[in-house]
Amino acid sequence: GAVVSQHPSRVICKSGTSVKIECRSLDFQATTMFWYRQFPKQSLMLMATSNEGSKATYEQGVEKDKFLINHASLTLSTLTVTSAHPEDSSFYICSARRPGQGNGYTFGSGTRLTVV
Amino acid sequence: DAKTTQPTSMDCAEGRAANLPCNHSTISGNEYVYWYRQIHSQGPQYIIHGLKNNETNEMASLIITEDRKSSTLILPHATLRDTAVYYCIGEKAAGNKLTFGGGTRVLVKP
Questions:
Q1: How far is CA A20 from CA A5, A7, B17, B65, B72, in A?
Q2: What residues in A contact B96, CB-CB < 8 Å?
């Protein structure tokens, strides 16, 4: 149980275009989801916290107008990379807290974004 | 969340036990110790967690010292598929975000 599905797994887009990444909790409701970015050989860096029905909370240094987050339902959060540039190429991962006390987080399988 | 310190990398032999240490000397009383691993190009995978007592599940065992300042993740019989980066994280049960450190890059060798 507690599965998070992330789509697409891989995307290539042209510089200047926008890309949307979806994160779904399949068998549980998630009022809060999290978006991470990971560059090669580095650890995961938290970008923002996605809150159902309200604005996302962004970490310091993350441009909210560039990385648009929408959490319109209890099972879906989306991250849109707007006007993508090659430096936005990265591995994007979402996560949600598993139901139950002290049960940790479950993660999506990640999205490899390449901007050309 | 508590700051954790892990070795950057370690090798272990296939079929042998792998013992992964983690220091979390600033952990507070209500913080759990969580272990996740990330296999190349995949999302992190939950392994195990504990508060005070040692824990065991189908994947691993977690040994937490009595003072809770350090812990050891034990993979009882490492396989080549256990090659991954392992993250030790201190997390409050009611915490609302997870912060990753550098983790330990584990290479299981035949």
A1: 14, 9, 42, 45, 39
A2: 32, 49
